[in-house]
Amino acid sequence: MLSETLANGNWNLAFLVLFFPLAGLLFNLIAGKWLGEKVIGAVASLATGLSFVMALLMGTWLMQGGGEAVTVPLFDWFRAGSLHLGWTLRIDTLSVMMMLVVTGVGTLIHIYAIGYMHDDVRHQGDPGRFQRFFVFLNLFIFAMLILVSADSYLMMFVGWEGVGLCSYLLIGFWYEKGAEGTGNAKAAKKAFIVNRIGDFGLLLALFLLFGAFGTLNFDPIFKNAALASPAIILAATLLMLLGVAGKSAQLPLFVWLPDAMAGPTPVSALIHAATMVTAGVYLIARSAPLYELAPSAQLVATWLGAATALFAATIAIAQNDIKKVLAYSTISQLGFMVAAVGMGAMVAGLFHLVTHAFFKALLFLAAGSVIQGMERGLHEAAHHGGEYDEDVDPQDMRSMGGLRSRMGLTFWVYLIGALALAGIAPLAGFFSKDEILLDALHEQPGVFAVLLTAAFLTAFYMGRQVLLVFFGQPRSEAAAHATESPAVMTVPLVLLAAGSVLAGALNLPVEGLHWLTGWLEHSIAGAESLPFDWLVAVGSTLVALSGLAAAYFFYGKRQPLGRALADPLSSAGCWVYSAFQHKWWVDDIYRKWLVGPLRAMSEFLAATFDQQVIDGVPKLLGESVKDFAIWLSGLQNGLVRSYIMAVLGGLIFILAFLLFIMR
Amino acid sequence: MEYGLNPLIVVTFFPLLGFLVILFLRETQKEALRWTALLTSLITFGLSLWLLAGFQQNSGDFQMIYDLTWLKIGPALIRLQMGVDGISILMVLLTTFLTPLAILSTWTAVKEKVKGFMLFFMMLETGMLGVFLALDMVLFYVFWEFTLIPMYFLIGIWGGKRRIDAAIKFFLFTMTGSLVMLVAIIFLGLTMGSFSLPELMAANPLIYTAQLWLFLGFGLAFAIKVPLWPFHTWLPDAHVEAPTAGSVILAGVLLKMGTYGFLRFNLPLFPDAARSLAPWIGTLAVAGILYGAVVSWAQKDLKKLVAYSSVSHLGFVMLGIFAFTVEAAEGAVLQMINHGLSTGALFLIVGMLYERRHTRELNAFGGLWKQMPILGSLALVVFLSSLGLPGLNGFVGEFLILAGTFVSPVLNNPWFAILAALGVIWAAVYLLHAFQKVFLGPLKNEANLALKDLNWREIITLIPLLVLIFWLGLYPQPFINLMAASVEKLLK
Prior knowledge:
The complex is a heterodimer.
Chain A: H1 2-7, H2 16-31, H3 37-64, E1 70-80, E2 83-91, H4 93-124, H5 129-149, H6 153-171, H7 183-213, H8 218-224, H9 230-247, H10 256-259, H11 265-274, H12 279-286, H13 288-292, H14 295-316, H15 322-343, H16 346-383, H17 403-406, H18 408-422, H19 428-443, H20 445-470, H21 477-481, H22 487-502, H23 515-520, H24 534-556, H25 568-581, H26 586-614, H27 616-635, H28 640-661
Chain B: H1 7-23, H2 30-53, E1 63-66, E2 69-73, E3 76-79, E4 82-84, H3 86-104, H4 114-133, H5 137-158, H6 163-192, H7 197-202, H8 208-225, H9 234-241, H10 244-269, H11 271-297, H12 302-321, H13 326-357, H14 368-371, H15 373-386, H16 393-406, H17 414-439, H18 456-474, H19 477-491
Antiparallel strand pairs in B: 1-4, 2-3
Helix pairs in contact in B: 1-2, 1-4, 2-3, 2-4, 3-4, 3-10, 3-13, 3-19, 4-5, 5-6, 5-10, 6-8, 6-9, 8-10, 8-11, 9-12, 10-12, 10-13, 11-12, 11-17, 12-13, 12-16, 12-17, 13-15, 13-16, 13-18, 13-19, 15-17, 15-18, 16-17, 16-18
């Protein structure tokens, strides 16, 4: 009987996809105190895993129904005036695809985190926080599923800010650590506030849509979009891009994402690489019917994405922190996706979203394995008579080297991830990136050139990273003593590596195998993929290979970069390289020209204006009444002659009044 | 006319019963004093639920009207006329809900002169309920002024170091507005031959010039109470000096008397003036939203920071009221409740910190989440609620206000909503700044290493607020249903 209910598309069960992570987080929140790490981790992973199963089921139900979107109302939210909103799920091929990515990659990262956090909470000195981590992680899955399964912009916004909250909580997970003890807390705050700046744009877009359509539900808006004033659609889609720039870390709001690496590495993998940051791409894809009506907004999105892709790639080549390289790489890859969906190449953008989720999650988790291997190496080295080297930062690639022999499995999966990201055939990244480049060539040759340059840099910085971390001789005692991570961490790595190899099969550029295109055309009208083009494929592969070769030329052959030595590029590139290293000084500019003046204004208003001017007026009023009273009481001075003077004056005044005015 | 057991009379004057009991207790019976006050306020809350049970939410009219002639002045009768509608019932519930929590917060905070404290608190509750239920303008004025006296003493006797100054400032500011309102009330009553709100609402509106002057007369009193920028400077001083329970009630209920006054009197009695002045008031409201937020960010004292945040939040309410759309007005009433809950909870949290550390300086704290995990987690939810996180209470109200303002034909200018939405960013700036300063970062200050986490009484004080914070965020519909008919009638 159970199998029957499940096979026939029982949409009443759709709520389960949200229920499992919610139940998991509540269970761990309430009971976690009395449970061991293994139980907590298992419950949280199971909750996410069950959601994944539910998403798979719904995918099969959709196929049985011919791919038609289904809406499942759960309960009312609020009705005020003409605005009616419910907690309603929208299950279509797009939302199910997102759910599968979120819960699929999410489950693997949950499992990995059981091992990673076991070490991390001890390394950081607060084992009690293990429980909190998994509560937050399940909360994130819950919020992200709300985001992708919402049937209205406003419910989506709940998930949108909800994942932002989880991001805040998890970046600041070790809130007493970081620079001066407040570094992590500040990074978390920065992420939330920068995202809120983006949300401001999104909020205004919602006002515009509400004003034009009287509703915020997807279907009625998309159906009537063509009837609305083009100016409003243009404004709304442009304002949405501000939200996209915030959440998906595009220019000019990308500054929060590199700092977000303060969070534990599984968080960087799940939230700040694979899922949350792609919400902006999802938003554009979801709003495809609006963007199609606003070519100018599409153009802006395309160039925004392309510019970000190149900009972030230039920064990535000059970073020495293993996670920072990956962070800028993520910004750059998100740029590829935004450029793609901006051009209207929805499938290509979403395809890259999926493959990127695999290989970037893989890279982050493998980087986490490297970091913990280095930490173990540090302790090991200290144990063997050496001193605990405080100066060695286990995330600094300059201290690594030669880890290939110490951490074999991690090396191989890292290599797969790096090659997939670089776009080497037949790994997943090759197919998705190729599709984006192909579309760009047809739509915007200029964008094609920019993205191709970014692709070259991508191969270059990944080649550099692999060479610095895994090849050559160990450049510190920690690297010389590093050890491989436990199976609970490596098994998810292997699975993600398999995904990074195979995910390209989702949309092979062969007639009849455009499987993802066929899947998504049920949600996105006019979804299509261009026919395979050998020129682009061979060209982009050559570009990627030359990037790797260049990396080998600088970092492989000559074994440079001791901890104190300068990067070989720094002498070659003068101020340009300095710009890369300093992230084009964007953070400094914001600090000096935006945050600083605002803070000064705030201090001035609070200390001077509010106290002296606004409060000064009533104070002055009070003082003058008092002075007047003192003067008045001075009249009663006990001298008869002044009283007589006053009486006389009064008499004269009354007489004058009667004689001259009352006449 | 009805002389039976009118629920409005019962609810309004029940706290005075507690007042009488407390009167006969001795100062030394501190526990009995506290329990009497707490039980009285709890029963009053129960009675307000009874009131709710008999309330017809489909009707936008005043219900359960109690009417008794009191005095006759010239052509006009002054009556003991009370009634409830969808807006006032929510304010009544807010009042009776917050009062027991405020009393609970005094358990260990108020050790001296407990008797006097509780006496004033009971008086205060009756006064506030009367303000929300009075339909006769003179009766309204009496209750309005009646709340002033207990609050004056609560600040002046149980307050902090500069309590006397703050109490006098509070009194003078409010009194200035009230006196102008009294003149307006007398003028209006004698001109129209009635002080009764339902009768005045049924009569033809006055000529525009009269409306304008009367609007300003009433409006000044309400604007100072709200407080609408730039009449706000009494508020930070009053809050900083007031005892915790006083701050909770001051922010939670007394400020709402101002916004309620605009809804109750200015909108229906002077409709043309209200509409023509809407852009001006909207401008002040937006100024308050941004100004309150920016100034809040610079505060070094946590309580002052929360006080300025009220200026910002109440700006949203004022904007919603003067947008003249159903969405915005319902959002405004919702936000009046939300602000009562969130800011009430914030002041309770500040009080819990102050009781332990005897300071509210942001720099004195840091890293408290580690030392006080329960308080840290509960405070996180409250801070997030105050910054309008979707899913929690503040969001729906704020969104309705902004969306309704954006499409408002009366304001007819998108910049009101756009600038006000900037306040949403600022809220994150100052609240996360405060949360970080107090709860995040390392535990550096040695004085904080000995801090004890919340006890059961304190947890019980906060939990009801948290339940409502989630309820109003996820399913505010029952609250909207209560007010909908009255709000729609108001905007007709």
